[in-house]
């Protein structure tokens, strides 16, 4: 009895607190919304109608003419006329070909599969895009995804804070609204709150960096967020956390006296480029300043003193002096080292228990969202230890085949990549023979290094854009790495709808399950065109377990040559027959629309029961709808097959009526 009473009181207290906080939140929300709406209101001033004859054409636009736009406000039955100068567009400002934006990256990014949620529907303004099959590849729209309501989350944190509950206690309480829902992270499992509420007792995997903390501590806290594997962009990644060692400290490669070769203009009156050799450092540098600079030297040792001085807020010449001291200290540390080097740690890629998280999936069938597989949850590959069914689409073949694959090998026994039969990437390879020499190209096993790339430029060709050499290349020289997103087969399939519609594809198939797509993320190598008599070839290599593609010259190439490789027989097969020399896609599209329209109606426009059909691409006199000449507002219009209402109609009808008034004006002048 006593116990029950205590539970009831506790529950009563909890419910009352939640209700109080909820009401406070509502009140705050009401005030906030009112203030925001007030801030958005502005004084309405009607645009005056210009009497005929007073319409002015600006001097700069003389010869270009002007147009009158009619704006109808349907609810007020008012009509306003606006004069707009018609501008002649300079060729320099002509629109660039319609290329989607592509984020530049220097390394492949492991994406795996696109989300089941579709953030937006591509080409939604283009009726020719077959959106239905594309939509079928996705389960929901992004807005249908369930997120934890931020108000509820605030309510939960505030309740923890006021009642000194632990997050776990809150998660266990069955209170409407606060009850954890399936698919949404429980409060106790969240680890990214900026400030933890009072009373929080759960262990936090993430410590928010505090401004008062030492620079190295802030950096350590921030970097804990990132995965050790430079190819993985998953924050707090669980799959790769122990897979790779920390990225080794970079060592300076440029001598301090050589730094001025890289600078042109002094950054200010304290710049190291002006001679300060005799001036002492007498500004106060406290321990934090020195630690910050030391950290900067360790993480970006070849950074210019001008840049470091901005970060440290110290005079530039003093930064250079400290850099010299830092290099001397490094040298003495090196000479103090015992002459016999300890053996490098072994790179255990051939040991799946170390290389991959050894957490068996614990399910029978193929790995999927229902099976709680850690790889699946983290959008990562299925690794050997997952013990997924062979049919799993995410299985990383590289894990098994790396031991037998023959690549260009390092023959130095000092190099652990050699032992692991892997290509070496000195940035992530422990015990690489290139690390001590400070020259990444010195390792004979180095395969794809940015420093070895050729200078190139992108220019127009017969097949859209293409890649051209800006310097000579010898046979076997590396041109550049083909980078992009590493995606799995289901995502390749769903992206294929967009590729076929666009008429251009950037997919490089690695094997039956995985491809590199540089449609949205990549570098200039995405512009390399296909030719059967290619001058380059693309080699796929496994570098520390990740697939990478290098493009190499197969013959000596002169500066100005277009870089071409053979896409292989399947590329054009999957996307229809090898295309003929293309017309400009825009022209082709417009011509087809015009042809269809003229066939349907020789006067070039159509009127249907609902309104008008207009082309927003080629609006000219022919497109003026008959209904615009009749009285009464248009309530609905059909633009290129899409029915539109409200503001869309206003825009269409105002453009159309401007064309009507122009044609009337011309007729009366005539
Ligand atoms: C990797 S992209 C190459 C860059 C492309 N030209 C551009 O402007 O973005 C591949 C696409 O270029 C076009 N392409 C490249 N070489 C071609 C060729 N020999 N014949 C026809 N189309 C080609 C095809 O549209 C193909 O899907």
What's the arrangement of secondary structure elements?
Layout: H1 2-40, E1 66-73, E2 78-85, E3 103-104, E4 109-112, E5 117-118, H2 131-136, E6 140-141, H3 150-163, H4 167-172, H5 215-223, H6 287-299, H7 305-312, H8 316-336, H9 352-355, H10 374-377, H11 398-401, H12 416-419, E7 456-461, E8 464-469, E9 478-482, E10 485-488, H13 489-502, E11 507-509, E12 514-517, E13 521-522, E14 529-530, E15 536-543, E16 546-553, E17 564-565, H14 569-574, H15 585-600, E18 606-608, E19 611-614, E20 636-639, E21 642-645, H16 647-669
Parallel strand pairs: 3-13, 4-10, 5-6, 14-17, 19-20
Antiparallel strand pairs: 1-2, 7-8, 9-16, 10-12, 11-12, 15-16, 18-19, 20-21
This protein binds S-adenosylmethionine.
S-adenosylmethionine binds at residues 463-466, 503-506, 526-527, 529-531, 579.
What does this structure look like?
It comes from Coprinopsis marcescibilis. InterPro entries: CXC_dom, EZH1/2-like, SET_dom, SET_dom_sf. It is a single chain. By secondary structure, the protein is an alpha/beta fold. Among the domains are: 256-336, no CATH class; 409-445, no CATH class; 589-669, no CATH class. It is built from 16 helices and 21 strands. It has helices spanning 2-40, 131-136, 150-163, 167-172, 215-223, 287-299, 305-312, 316-336, 352-355, 374-377, 398-401, 416-419, 489-502, 569-574, 585-600, 647-669; strands at 66-73, 78-85, 103-104, 109-112, 117-118, 140-141, 456-461, 464-469, 478-482, 485-488, 507-509, 514-517, 521-522, 529-530, 536-543, 546-553, 564-565, 606-608, 611-614, 636-639, 642-645. It has a four-stranded mixed sheet with strand order 4-10-12-11. The longest helix is centred in the N-terminal third of the chain and has 39 residues, at 2-40. Residues 1-5, 55-61, 341-359, 378-414, 426-431, 434-438, 575-586 and 597-670 have low confidence and may be disordered. S-adenosylmethionine is lined by residues 463-466, 503-506, 526-527, 529-531, 579.
């Amino acid at each position: 009895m006593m116990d029950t009473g205590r539970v009831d009181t506790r529950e009563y207290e909890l419910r009352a607190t939640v209700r109080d906080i909820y009401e406070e939140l509502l009140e705050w929300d009401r005030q906030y919304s009112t203030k925001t709406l007030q801030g958005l209101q502005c004084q309405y001033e009607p645009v005056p109608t210009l009497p005929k004859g007073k319409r002015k054409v600006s001097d700069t636009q003389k010869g270009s003419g002007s147009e009158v736009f009619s704006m109808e406000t349907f609810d007020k039955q008012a009509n306003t006329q606006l004069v707009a100068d018609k501008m002649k567009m300079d060729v320099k400002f002509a629109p660039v070909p319609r290329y989607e934006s592509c984020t530049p990256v220097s390394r492949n990014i492991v994406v795996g599969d696109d989300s089941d949620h579709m953030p937006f529907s591509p080409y939604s303004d283009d009726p020719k895009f077959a959106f239905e099959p594309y939509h079928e590849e996705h389960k929901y729209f992004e807005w249908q995804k369930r997120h934890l309501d931020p108000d509820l989350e605030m309510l939960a944190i505030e309740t923890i804070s006021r009642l000194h509950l632990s997050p776990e206690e809150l998660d266990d309480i069955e209170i409407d609204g606060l009850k954890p829902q399936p698919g949404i992270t429980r409060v106790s499992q969240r680890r990214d709150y900026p400030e933890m509420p009072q009373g929080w007792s759960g262990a936090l995997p993430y410590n928010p960096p505090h401004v008062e903390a030492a620079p190295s501590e802030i950096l350590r806290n921030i970097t804990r967020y990132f995965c050790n594997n430079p190819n993985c962009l998953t924050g707090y990644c669980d799959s790769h956390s122990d897979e790779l060692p920390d990225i080794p400290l970079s060592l300076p490669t440029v001598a301090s006296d050589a730094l001025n070769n890289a600078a042109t203009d002094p950054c200010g009156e304290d710049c190291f480029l002006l001679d300060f050799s005799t001036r002492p450092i007498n500004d106060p540098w406290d321990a934090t300043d020195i630690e910050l600079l030391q950290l900067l030297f360790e993480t970006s040792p070849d950074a210019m003193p001008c840049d470091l001085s901005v970060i440290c807020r110290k005079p530039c010449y003093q930064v250079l002096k400290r850099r010299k001291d830092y290099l001397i200290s490094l040298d003495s540390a090196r000479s103090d080292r015992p002459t016999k080097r300890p053996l490098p740690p072994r790179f255990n890629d051939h040991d799946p228990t170390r290389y991959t998280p050894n957490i068996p999936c614990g399910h029978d069938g193929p790995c999927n969202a229902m099976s709680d597989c850690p790889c699946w949850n983290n959008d990562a590959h299925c690794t050997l230890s997952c013990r997924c069914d062979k049919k799993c689409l995410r299985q990383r073949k590289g894990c098994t085949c790396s031991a037998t694959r023959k690549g260009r090998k390092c023959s130095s026994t000092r190099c652990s990549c050699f032992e692991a039969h892997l290509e070496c990437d000195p940035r992530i390879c422990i015990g690489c023979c290139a690390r001590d020499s400070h020259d990444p190209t010195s390792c004979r096993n180095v395969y794809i290094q940015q420093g070895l790339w050729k200078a190139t430029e992108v220019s127009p060709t017969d097949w859209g854009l293409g890649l051209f050499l800006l310097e000579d290349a010898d046979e076997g020289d590396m041109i550049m790495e083909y980078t992009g997103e590493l995606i799995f087969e289901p995502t390749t399939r769903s992206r294929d709808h967009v590729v076929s519609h666009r008429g251009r594809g950037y997919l490089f198939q690695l094997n039956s399950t995985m491809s590199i797509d540089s449609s949205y993320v990549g570098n200039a190598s995405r512009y390399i065109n296909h030719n059967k008599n290619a001058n380059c070839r693309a080699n796929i290599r496994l570098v520390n377990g990740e697939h990478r593609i290098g493009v190499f010259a197969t013959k000596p190439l002169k500066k100005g040559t277009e870089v071409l490789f053979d896409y292989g027989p399947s590329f054009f097969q999957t996307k229809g027959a090898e295309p003929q020399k293309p017309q400009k896609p825009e022209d082709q599209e417009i011509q087809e629309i015009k042809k269809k329209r003229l066939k349907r109606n020789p006067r070039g426009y159509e009127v249907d029961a609902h309104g008008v059909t207009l082309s927003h691409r080629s609006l000219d006199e022919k497109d003026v709808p008959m209904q615009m000449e009749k009285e009464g507002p248009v309530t609905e219009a059909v633009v290129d097959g899409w029915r539109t209402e409200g503001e869309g109609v206003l825009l269409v009808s105002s453009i159309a009526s401007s064309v009507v008034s122009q044609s009337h004006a011309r007729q009366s002048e005539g």
